[in-house]
Amino acid sequence: MVNRQMIDNKLGLLAGYIADLIEIQDMAQKEYLADKKTQRYVERTLHLAIECCLDIGNHLISDQNWREPLSNKDVFTVLEENGVISSVLLPSLSKMAQFRNILVHDYAKIEPDIIYSILKNNVTDLQKFIKEIDKALKSL
Questions:
Q1: Looking at residue 68, what DSSP letter applies?
Q2: In whole angstroms, how far apart are CA 13 and each of 16, 27, 60, 77, 94?
């Protein structure tokens, strides 16, 4: 059975991370690139947000006995295969999983310009994930 309390807790954390990112989305790129503390804050907040998405996905996959994902990226593919997330959102979430691996394993290669672009253009994908999970939970 889906542990709704755990999912709701993760969704709450995710919503908080999104709110934190939205707070600084209006920062000018020049200012962002000159502020290492903010860069690290954004990197870590994005990492935590992606981890929430993966935790939620893995829980649903396990609970519903869907096929085991081959990777973090595949978590989102399994969710899409089972109608939890849309095929429109899948590419963005797959890129997030790949990005998470860079944040965790190749952190020395992180390019601040790319993080800034993600901050400006991709936070809405996290919001869409919340909406699609909420919708899917009504039918599980």
A1: P
A2: 5, 23, 17, 23, 20
User: pTM of the prediction?
Assistant: 0.95
User: What is the per-residue pLDDT across 32-80, written as a single tens digit (0 to 9) for each?
Assistant: 999 999 999 999 999 999 999 999 999 999 999 999 999 999 999 999 9
How many CB atoms are closer than 10 A to CB 113?
Answer: 10
CATH code of the domain covering residue 77:
1.20.120.580
| Side chain identity, residue 140 | L
Residue 91 belongs to what domain range?
A: 4-137
**In whole angstroms, what separates CA 84 from the centre of its chain?**
15
Cα–Cα distance for residue pair 47/42, rounded to 1 Å: 8
- Domain count for the chain, please give it: 1
